[in-house]
Write a structure and sequence with these properties.
With 370 residues, this protein is mainly α. It has a two-stranded antiparallel ribbon. Strands 3-4 form a two-stranded antiparallel ribbon. Helix 4 packs antiparallel against helix 7 and helix 6 runs parallel beside helix 9.
């Protein structure tokens, strides 16, 4: 079997195609089920144990807090523990895994699962993301978690063994967060690869319009498959994304308030800035990939419009018009709880909402001082 590359040249099919690789797929995948169920059980045990421990420490410290700064730090600790349990719960028990099975079936129709160019592109981007996560965890998340536990309010290590224990818990916590965010990122990369191929083929036809009529229909079909992939992915993780975004925004706002009004020492600034940078970086990366789907799905509109003039054929004009209409709607993408499509406009609105809350900080601070 031959696969058509981005420049419409046939390339040999690879022996093994690319699939979404994650421990969570054991729910619908029959390969190595026993071992993967065992590993998943270990991960869930770690999630519940570490998350519960963090929330317990936060609650215990909150009862003895006297100042607003201390209470703010305890709230951050509690959200820290709650978030890791929450995202795993939503991914495993709220997400509709039947949609993921349908996603895999539709992906197999693209013909890209064995395409070397697509495989290399997805693997390259996934490696970059995982390196990014490692840097964030190592430079920001771990020090922030350690600093919270070693602050005046938190569990204080009495000897080297307790310090090592807390360090291990912090590393495991960071790894668990990275693991659960890796899965939706893979979904986004697979979807983007389809629309990227659509745009590549449209760009190729601009330079080589001779076979436009033969290819326009296949390009429209591939775009339609990408649209179906996006829909299934959205139906699968829409509530996971919604709760993740909500927690991230809450983290950011609380940290900004702490930095502006409740940080008095270098340690306070370090804790707040570490968490803020880590959460904002994670939010930005997830948002970027979600927006990228919408952008790539409509990117080829102008190329399609240009191609509509290349031949005076009713079939060709009809195919180009249908593709232009679908791209022009600009509604393909992941959504926030099926309420809004995550686009650049959505990000702007979310940023505006955050700024509105930030502008209300002085009022909140004045009320708290009374």
């Amino acid at each position: 079997m031959l696969i058509i590359s981005s420049d419409n040249k046939p390339v040999p099919e690879m022996d093994k195609g690319i699939e979404i690789s994650s421990i969570f797929t054991v729910i619908v995948d029959k390969k190595n089920r026993r071992m993967r169920y065992f590993l998943l059980a270990i991960f869930l045990s770690l999630v519940v144990s570490i998350g519960s421990f963090i929330m317990y420490v936060a609650y215990k410290n909150f009862l003895t807090c006297e100042t607003l700064a201390e209470k703010n730090l305890c709230i951050l600790q509690f959200l820290n523990g709650f978030s890791v349990i929450n995202v795993y719960f939503f991914l495993l028990f709220v997400c509709d895994w039947k949609r993921f099975v349908e996603f895999k079936e539709i992906w197999s129709q693209t013909g890209l699962q064995n395409d070397p160019e697509t495989i290399n592109n997805i693997k390259s981007q996934l490696r970059k993301y995982r390196r990014f996560i490692c840097v964030i965890n190592g430079v920001f998340t771990v020090p922030a978690t350690l600093s919270i536990y070693q602050s005046d309010l938190s569990f204080k290590p009495k000897d080297a063994y307790e310090f090592i224990l807390i360090s291990c818990l912090s590393l495991i916590y960071s790894a668990l967060i990275g693991l659960v965010t890796d899965f939706p990122i893979q979904l986004a990369l697979f979807i983007c690869s389809v629309f990227t191929r659509v745009n590549q083929r449209l760009a190729y036809l601009i330079e080589h319009p001779d076979s436009t009529e033969d290819n326009m229909r296949s390009i429209r079909l591939l775009h339609s498959i990408g649209s179906q992939l996006t829909l299934k992915a959205d139906q699968f993780i829409r509530y996971f994304l919604a709760t993740s975004f909500s927690l991230y925004v809450l983290f950011i706002l609380i940290n900004l308030y702490r930095i502006i009004y409740l940080s008095y020492t270098l340690t306070d600034y370090f804790i707040s800035m570490s968490i803020l940078i880590a959460v904002m970086s994670m939010t930005a990366f997830i948002t970027y990939n979600a927006v990228k789907i919408n952008y790539l799905a409509s990117k080829g509109f102008h190329h399609t419009y240009q191609l509509s003039f290349t031949k005076n054929s009713s079939n060709h004009i009809a195919e180009a018009s249908l593709l232009m209409y679908r791209m022009g709607r600009n509604d393909i993408g992941l959504t926030f709880a099926n309420l809004f499509t995550i686009t650049a406009s959505f990000v702007t609105s979310l940023a505006t909402l955050c700024i509105t809350f930030i502008l209300a900080f002085p009022t909140i601070q004045s009320q708290s001082n009374k």
